[in-house]
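ok so i was messing around last nite and threw this chain in just to see what happens. nothing serious, just curious
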Amino acid sequence: MVDLETRELRYFVAVAEELHFGRAADRLGISQPPLSRAIRQLERRLGVRLLDRDRGGAVLTDAGRVLLREARTALDAVTAAAHRTRRAGDPGRPLVLVTKAGASHELLQRLLDAFAGEPGAPPVEVLLCEVGEQAGLLREGRADVALMHRPFDDLAGFDTEDLCVEGQVALLPAGHPLASRDRLTLAEVSHVPDLPIARWPRLDGSYPDGPGPEVRTQSQLAQLVALGRTLLVIPASSRAWQWPDHVAVPVVDAPDVTTVIAWPADSRSPAIAALVRSAAALRTAAPAG
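result:
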């Protein structure tokens, strides 16, 4: 059996993500020689080559790609164990609910109000994040529960309860000709020469191909739409952060989006269970807008 240390996994992940020993060493705050020695030692212990090296940097082998995926998972688990242990030692701590900023606003408000009315309910701290960050915060133990959206968010390893289903809208600059329409189709919004659809980063941080601008935050997107540089198709409830310079037009053939409440599958927390029950009880109410 080969025992792997978290330190060497962190070293390997840095090199695998940077594909350059010098940049990885800078990122880790160490010099390059000990980093190179650590990776060579790791390869000897595993009995496989993880990286092909050349003067320009490094390239992952098939074995290296497997270890990168597994190392990220292992490091997330270690980080989550530390966070959850500290949080468990504070019985008066609030529950942390993470959600994408601006999304499912009405649903979130109703959930907070309903749970606050439950006898003995702990306080809830709302952690607002950017697109796609909820899963990482849950896995790291920085949040207890999350509002997430199927089919866009990564729900692997979580238990979930469906809360509401909604359509999608195209967010457009108010002065654009399409903003006067009462409905649009995906074909129409996908081929607007002067308004290419904005591109969000994939889970690995890379961007899909396309002419639209690269965005990482809601504020970047909001300003680019207001400036007439891009559009985006988003769940209807995300209109909560819409600017006066924006217009939201329903996209009639866009796939429906399901808002879910998600939590770690191994959770045994009575407080989390109570919050999930409060969320599930809202399903009989009107959908969030």
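not much to say yet. The domain at 6-86 is CATH 1.10.10.10 (Arc Repressor Mutant, subunit A).
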